[in-house]
Amino acid sequence: MRRTALLSLLSLGLSAPVMAAPPAAAKPAPAKPMSAPADLEAETRAWHTRRIERLTAEDGWLSLVGLHWLKEGDNRFGSASDNDLVFPASAPAHAGTFTRKGDTVSLSLKPGVSLTLEGKPFTGGALRSDAQGSPDTLALGTMRFFIIRRGERLGIRVKDPEAPTRKNFHGIPTYAPTAAWRVEARFEPATTERKLSVPNVLGEVEEMVAPGTAVFTVGGQEYRLTPVDDGSGQLFFIFGDLTNRDATYGAGRFLYTDLPKDGKVVLDFNRAYNPPCAFTPYATCPLPPSQNRLKVRVEAGEKRYGDH
Questions:
Q1: pLDDT for position 35
Q2: pLDDT value of position 283
Q3: Is the same domain home to 145 and 271?
Q4: Going by C-beta distance under 8 Å and a sequence separation of 6 or more, which residues neighbour residue 139?
Q5: Residue 116: which domain range?
Q6: 202: left (phi > 0), else alpha (psi -120 to 50), else beta?
Q7: Does any domain span residue 143?
Q8: What pLDDT sits at residue 241?
């Protein structure tokens, strides 16, 4: 999966996680300072603490231990290597079979294998994916798994709070918070419904609603970022910049902002953070659309995690 994700990044023209450093550039600064909270550093640190709490939660992204795509028909699963879907070693050698028929998935279990669905004993039957809202979550020992839909694909996502990625997490380095990267942008709303083509690490492209464009100035140069509507009630920016080559995650970062007010939006890049793919090969992250690859070093927010 890691190799597939890397090939996807290269095919989309994105930088791989480690490349030669870019030519030296003057350290950017906004064209004019804007008002910032009295204690920007304390607020940023508090925000990042909450972000780490979500990331390291028992069901957070660090708990991922598997992602298995289903073929049409039967998909045998368990820890033995002869299964179609090889689960972690804590699973029974041969646990059962997921059967895909078009957009539906059902599960049958081997005799003697017991698991629960939403805390209640489950002996088999049809399962709901995340395309239908909250997916049916199955439990087998410490593992939790459920069906996800990505484009035309259906897969089994497996989580375990005992995952090494969670147990061995050692924090994320960040740039020091600075008012220089808390930028006020002019928001140009879309006059008609507009879709943005957003690629992902699977090599697929999703058309997402783009409510407008944020226009801002750094170092005397104008830049533009287009957010998407992901149903969160905020603006979601998927962006890349020149630090991706040597200091931040090679596939770009995420940033959420409040909705525009009086035609303005505040882009606080101190809160730019790494996507789940920076920590695990079992995530299906969106990548920056071509128009959201900034040709400037955004030296704010989270830096690269480990060797990613």
A1: 57
A2: 94
A3: no
A4: 115, 116, 117, 119
A5: 61-167
A6: alpha
A7: yes
A8: 98
Quote the strand ranges of 28-91, DSSP E. 64-69, 73-78, 85-86
Q: Are residues 74 and 205 in the same domain?
A: no
Whether residue 11 lies inside any domain: the answer is yes
- Report pLDDT for 70: 98
Do 245 and 180 lie in a common domain?
yes
Q: Looking at the structure, do residues 9 and 68 belong to the same domain, yes or no?
A: no
Tally of structural domains, the chain: 2
In a domain, residue 306? The reply is no
- Looking at residue 17, its pLDDT comes to 38
Task: Say what the pTM is.
Answer: 0.83
Q: Which residues of the chain have pLDDT under 70?
A: 1-37, 307-308
Residues 84, 71: contact at Cβ < 8 Å? Answer: yes
Residues 279 and 195 in one domain: yes
The values of phi and psi at residue 290, to 5°, are: -55, -40
Q: What is residue 133's predicted lDDT score, i.e. its pLDDT?
A: 87
Cβ atoms of 124 and 108 closer than 8 Å:
yes
Report CA-CA distances (Å) from 180 to 174, 241, 266, 303: 15, 16, 12, 17
Is there a single domain that holds both residue 163 and residue 177?
Answer: no
Residues belonging to the chain: 308
Give me the pLDDT at residue 46, please.
97
Predicted confidence at residue 113, as pLDDT, reads: 94
The reported pLDDT for the residue numbered 16 is 38
Whether 176 and 280 map to the same domain: the answer is yes
